[in-house]
Write a structure and sequence with these properties.
single chain, 254 residues, alpha/beta, 5-stranded mixed beta sheet, 41% helix, 20% strand
């Protein structure tokens, strides 16, 4: 019976005009994992104005950029750093004149909410000692923006070599935070907005802005985009109302 129902639903879907489906669906947006709550709220606010709600895929900026370069269909790309947007631009896949900086963020050290650890990210701070036999949760420092920022900051502060062997690399910044939330890692490094979105971690300290490149989130329309709402949704994100949503979630406006 379940199979019969499934086949009926599939048949009904096939009878729907592809053009009508495309018209009803909003633009496809590829966005950095750290934007989950804020961009979802922004998409809801856009839809409340009578537009089709954007379809958002959240992942590491590195993974999303590689998908775009490989030919994945999408309309808008929001990266957590300039380098992965540069990679898409180098591949000739951005629409000219649409790339701009949307947001800024800060890098923080986190621990489980019940942890008593006290540390101030500074030159030579005892991070390795605080970890003990535990691991340091990071987004993959070889590719993912949050992990790359973290490695740069720790290197600048002179403590990377002491903790490199203790790193637990994760596929994106939210996966890194999840390790700390579950108690699988005593400490982790994420964006300030990620920590703000969690009820089970606390910020131990904020990394000096001078210890890593500025954390900027560029947004751009992809050259292959044909959706009528792409430019409008981008403009909404950059508007006073749109940016106010991100600011409420802890991001900074450029």
């Amino acid at each position: 019976m379940t199979r019969i129902i499934h086949l009926f639903v599939l048949l009904a879907a096939l009878l729907v005009s592809p053009a009508a489906f495309a018209q009803e669906r909003g633009p496809v947006v590829l966005a950095a994992a750290s934007l989950q709550e804020s961009l979802t709220e922004a998409a809801n606010a856009w839809a409340a104005k009578g537009h089709a709600k954007p379809v958002i895929s959240f992942a590491a900026s590195s993974a999303l950029a590689r998908q775009v370069i490989a030919g994945a269909p999408a309309n808008l790309f929001l990266s957590a750093d300039e380098e992965w947007m540069d990679a898409v631009a180098k591949a000739g896949l951005l629409r000219a004149g649409t790339r701009t900086t949307l947001l800024g963020n800060r890098l923080v050290l986190i621990a489980p909410a019940a942890s008593k650890v006290r540390l101030t990210p500074s030159r030579g701070f005892p991070l390795a000692k605080a970890l003990g036999t535990g691991r340091l949760a990071l987004a993959d420092p070889a590719a993912v923006p949050a992990g790359k920022y973290a490695k740069t900051a720790l290197t600048h502060l002179g403590v990377w070599t002491g903790v490199a062997a203790k790193v637990a690399p994760a596929e994106n910044v939210r996966a890194a935070m999840a390790l700390v939330e579950r108690g699988a890692a005593p400490l982790g490094i994420v964006y300030a907005t990620d920590a703000r979105a969690s009820k089970t971690v606390r910020i131990v300290g904020t990394f000096p802005a001078s210890s890593h490149p500025p954390i900027r989130y560029p947004v751009a329309v992809l050259k292959a985009s044909r959706h009528k709402d792409t430019a409008g949704f981008r403009a909404f994100l950059l508007s006073k109302q749109g940016r106010a949503i991100f600011v409420r979630h802890g991001f900074s406006a450029p």
